[in-house]
Amino acid sequence: MASQFLAAVDLGSNSFHMIVAELVDGELRIVDRLREMVRLAGGLDEQGNLDEASRQRALACLQRFGQRLVDFPPGSVRAVGTNTLRRARSNDFLKQARQALGHPIEIIAGVEEARLIYLGVAHTLSDSDDIRLVADIGGGSTEVILGRRFEALEKESLYMGCVSFTRRFFPDGAINAVAMRKAVIAARQEVLGIEREYRDIGWGQAVGASGTIKAVRDVVRANGWSDEGITYDSLRRLADELVAAGHIDRVSLQGLKEERMPVICGGVAVLLALFEGLQIERMAVSEQALREGLLYDMLGRLRHEDVRERTINALSERYQLDTAQAARVEQTALQLLDGVAAEWSLEDESARQLLSWAARLHEIGLAIVHSQYHKHGAYLLANSDLPGFTRREQQLLAILVRAHRRKLPMAEFAQLPEEDGARAIRLSLLLRLAVLLHRSHSDEPLPIVEVTAAEQGTALSFPGGWIEEHPLTAADLELEQGWMQREGYRLTVGEGA
Fold this sequence. Notes:
Elements: E1 3-11, E2 15-24, E3 27-37, H1 52-68, E4 77-81, H2 83-87, H3 91-101, E5 105-107, H4 110-122, E6 131-137, E7 142-148, E8 151-158, H5 162-169, H6 177-201, E9 205-209, H7 211-222, E10 230-231, H8 232-245, H9 264-278, E11 282-285, H10 290-302, H11 307-318, H12 323-340, H13 349-361, H14 373-383, H15 391-402, H16 410-414, H17 418-437, E12 450-454, E13 457-462, H18 466-469, H19 471-486, E14 490-495
Parallel strand pairs: 1-4, 4-5, 6-9, 9-11, 13-14
Antiparallel strand pairs: 1-2, 2-3, 6-7, 7-8, 10-11, 12-13
Helix pairs in contact: 1-3, 4-10, 5-9, 6-9, 7-9, 8-9, 12-13, 12-17, 13-15, 13-17, 14-15, 15-17, 17-19
């Protein structure tokens, strides 16, 4: 019986979670779960700086997680950061976090977090063609999704969470009706932007996930206010009980765990706003969410059902790209990559995927206008919802498309993390050459081009006489030599026997 282990790590604003699963004959079996209350959002200031205490709590937790994952091979662990790490400014902290965990950590956009949450929850629900509403209240953001079966149809990430709202409206632990009302109104303002669209689409079942919603479910059930899920009346009763206590230190509710106590008021206010704004009568509760969604997403990639491929294909169709030209450029770019991968440390699958995606989308900016279309394409890719892509992958894809012609955008490369900058430049050089060699959009096959790598450039060798027979390509290669030389790179062009 063939098996392998996969792990997903969720670096949330309130808690860090890790889940380990064994993949046996194509099916996932959970074998381990770890969770620590880190409260990262509580240490983030308005400028996006993490205080030292929060950093140390997070790094200590990741070191413990890392001990569990020390024997996991590359590619078997997906670790993602959510709202607080999206807002944090410290690349230095991320570097330390990756070292502590022993595996890469990616920051995902809010809508991608929403997609993964829905994927995790959907695997707990019965197969039905009905639309489901899924909500997940985190420490700093709340994701709200409408979906059918395993496909998220509408995804939103709202700027409100149990930690951020507790800090904002109940900073000293005092609880009163005025503060609760202000918190609910502020949350309603966030929900307002999706109310009409979501209610117009409608849904058959509302399902909640995350620690806050599970904590509310536990309290209303333990106190006999609701036997099944969460009702609006039971939620309102919980809010009234919190207000009646007057201070968080005096709250005494059956079913409420001590670790959840410091952030319960903000979480209840956010959930009330969702119930009121979306007119939810009853909400079921799922035990699965983001981390399980990560596992299922990894499983899809292992089965060659990568949602990122669907995203690339959907973009190609939506913007009516010339797929034949894209395929020509892709094939040549990957052939060039094969020639230099070892020397340029680009042998990993992620480099090949990124170059392939950029080649297939390099002309996407033509959907706007031909002039400066590489810049328009980069803008589209940097600012679109790209399901399956992490924020880093999306940024790299955008900069490769931006750099595929004209001047190399060295200032933008310099803004990338150190480990990404050199790789991105090298991949962009390969893409530029592939685009140049297919500038005519002709089906005429290219000759066998030999490519060799150097530290600061590359060399191309064509069959004897070929360059002389293709003067336009020769002129383009000469221009490219100039573009590269301006930035300290060399392109050598020659002919073999």
